[in-house]
C-alpha cells in the first residue's frame, strides 16, 4: 500500500480539516460535502485521516467487517456465528476508505450474484459490493454532482438506514453498511439535488490557496513527500500522533459535553432566521458543535462553537432567495450577527 500524505502536513484548508475531525469524533454528523476547485487535495485529506485513526476490531473473516460488540444489525455470516463458539474471534483492520467511481454500475455498488460460483458450483452466493467494503469507514465520491440519479437515491437510502438490502436474482441479502459519506464536487459543473445536499451534515468550500506563502509551503511539502515518502511520514509522525490522541480523547469526552436548552434555543433561532427546512439542520448543529467542543476540550457548548460550525452546517441548506443574491455564507454570517451570536 502506498504511503498517504500525512494529515498534519496538509497546509491551510482549515474548514475541510476541521470537518473531517468532527466526523471522526462523531460519525452521526453524517458526512461532508467539499465544494471547490479540482486538485485542491480533497481526497488527500480523507485518505490521510483514515490513516490517522486506529485500526478497527472486526469479526474474523466477516466480509462486511462487522463490529464484534455490535448490538445492531449483523450480517448473515456473523448472525450464524452468534450462537456458535467462534463468535468471539476478532481481527483488526484499517478504517476503510472506499472510492465510488462515477461510472460504477449498481451491481458494483450494492453487490451482486457471484457469477463464478453460480456457474462453476451452481450455488447462489453473494459477491459484496463497495457499500460492504465501506462499512464502518468512509465512502468517497469525487464529483458527486455528476453521479447518476438512481445511485444517488440508493446512497441516500442506505446512508439513512445503515443497512444494504439486496433482493434480486433470487438473492436476499441484508448487511450493515454504515459509513461516513464524503463527496466532492464543483457546483459549476452540475447542480446537486436538495435531497442529497440535505443528507450531508457539513459542507465546506475548498479553494486553491491565494496567499503567496501558503502556495509555496504547499509546493515545498508536496515535493519533499514525493521525493521520500517514508522520511516525510516519519517527520510528521509526532504531529499525527498528537492529532490522533486529540480525536480519541474527544470521542471519550463527547457524552460528557453539556448542551443547555439555552444553546439549543440559539440553534433553533438561527435556523428559523435562515428558513431551513425540517429539523435536520438543528440536529447537525447540535452534534457538530458538541464534537467541536469535545475536540477543543471544552466542558459545554457555547456561542463561540456555534459561530465556527454554523457556516459549514447551514450554507448548503439555504433555499435560494430570488430577492437576495448574497452568497449563502454571507447570509449565515448576517444571521449570526443579527441574533448577536
Ligand atoms: Zn458480519
Topology, please?
Layout: H1 14-25, E1 32-36, H2 42-52, E2 56-59, H3 76-82, E3 90-93, E4 97-99, H4 106-110, E5 112-113, H5 115-120, E6 126-127, H6 130-134, E7 137-141, H7 149-161, E8 163-168, E9 171-176, E10 179-185, H8 194-199, E11 202-206, H9 212-227, H10 229-253, H11 261-274, H12 280-296, H13 303-314, H14 328-338
Parallel strand pairs: 1-10, 1-11, 4-7, 7-10
Antiparallel strand pairs: 2-3, 5-6, 8-9
The chain binds zinc ion.
Zinc ion binds next to helix 3.
What does this structure look like?
The radius of gyration is 21 Å and the shape is globular. 47% of the residues lie in helices and 14% in strands. It has helices at 14-25, 42-52, 76-82, 106-110, 115-120, 130-134, 149-161, 194-199, 212-227, 229-253, 261-274, 280-296, 303-314, 328-338; strands at residues 32-36, 56-59, 90-93, 97-99, 112-113, 126-127, 137-141, 163-168, 171-176, 179-185, 202-206. It folds into 2 domains: 7-55 and 94-206, P-loop containing nucleotide triphosphate hydrolases (Rossmann fold), CATH 3.40.50; 256-338, Orthogonal Bundle (Helicase, Ruva Protein, domain 3), CATH 1.10.8. It is an alpha/beta fold. The strands form 4 sheets. A 5-stranded parallel sheet has the order 4-7-10-1-11. It is built from 14 helices and 11 strands. Bound molecules: zinc ion. The site of zinc ion has 8 residues, from helix 3. Zinc ion is lined by residues 59, 62, 64, 66, 74-75, 77-78.
Amino acid at each position: 500500500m502506498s504511503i498517504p500524505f500525512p494529515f498534519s502536513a496538509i497546509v491551510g484548508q482549515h474548514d475541510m480539516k476541521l470537518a473531517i475531525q468532527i466526523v471522526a469524533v462523531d460519525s452521526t454528523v453524517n458526512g461532508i460535502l467539499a465544494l471547490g476547485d479540482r486538485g485542491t487535495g480533497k481526497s488527500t485529506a480523507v485518505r490521510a485521516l483514515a490513516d490517522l485513526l486506529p485500526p478497527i476490531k472486526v469479526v474474523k473473516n466477516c466480509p462486511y467487517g462487522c463490529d464484534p460488540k455490535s448490538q445492531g444489525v449483523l450480517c448473515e455470516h456473523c448472525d450464524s456465528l452468534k450462537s456458535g463458539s467462534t463468535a468471539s474471534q476478532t481481527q483488526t483492520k484499517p478504517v476503510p476508505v472506499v472510492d465510488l467511481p462515477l461510472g460504477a454500475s449498481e451491481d458494483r455498488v450494492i453487490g451482486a450474484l457471484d457469477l463464478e460460483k453460480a456457474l462453476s458450483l451452481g450455488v447462489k452466493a453473494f459477491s459484496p459490493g463497495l457499500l460492504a467494503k465501506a462499512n464502518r469507514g468512509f465512502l468517497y465520491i469525487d464529483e458527486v454532482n455528476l453521479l447518476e440519479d438512481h445511485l444517488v437515491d440508493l446512497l441516500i437510502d442506505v446512508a439513512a438506514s445503515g443497512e444494504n438490502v439486496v433482493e434480486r436474482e433470487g438473492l436476499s441479502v441484508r448487511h450493515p453498511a454504515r459509513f461516513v459519506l464524503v463527496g466532492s464536487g464543483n457546483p459549476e459543473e452540475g447542480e446537486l439535488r436538495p435531497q442529497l445536499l440535505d443528507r450531508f451534515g457539513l459542507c465546506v468550500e475548498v479553494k486553491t490557496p491565494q496567499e503567496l506563502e501558503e502556495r509555496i509551503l504547499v509546493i515545498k511539502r508536496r515535493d519533499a513527500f514525493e521525493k521520500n515518502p517514508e522520511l516525510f511520514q516519519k517527520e510528521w509522525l509526532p504531529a499525527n500522533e498528537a492529532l490522533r490522541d486529540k480525536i480519541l480523547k474527544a470521542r471519550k469526552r463527547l457524552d460528557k459535553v453539556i448542551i443547555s436548552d439555552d444553546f439549543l434555543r440559539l440553534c433553533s433561532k438561527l435556523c428559523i432566521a435562515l428558513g431551513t427546512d425540517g429539523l435536520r439542520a438543528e440536529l447537525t448543529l447540535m452534534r457538530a458543535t458538541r464534537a467541536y467542543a469535545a475536540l477543543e476540550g471544552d466542558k459545554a457548548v457555547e456561542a463561540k462553537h456555534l459561530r465556527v460550525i454554523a457556516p459549514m452546517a447551514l450554507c448548503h441548506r439555504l433555499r435560494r432567495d430570488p430577492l437576495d443574491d448574497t452568497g449563502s455564507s454571507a447570509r449565515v454570517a448576517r444571521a449570526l450577527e443579527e441574533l448577536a451570536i
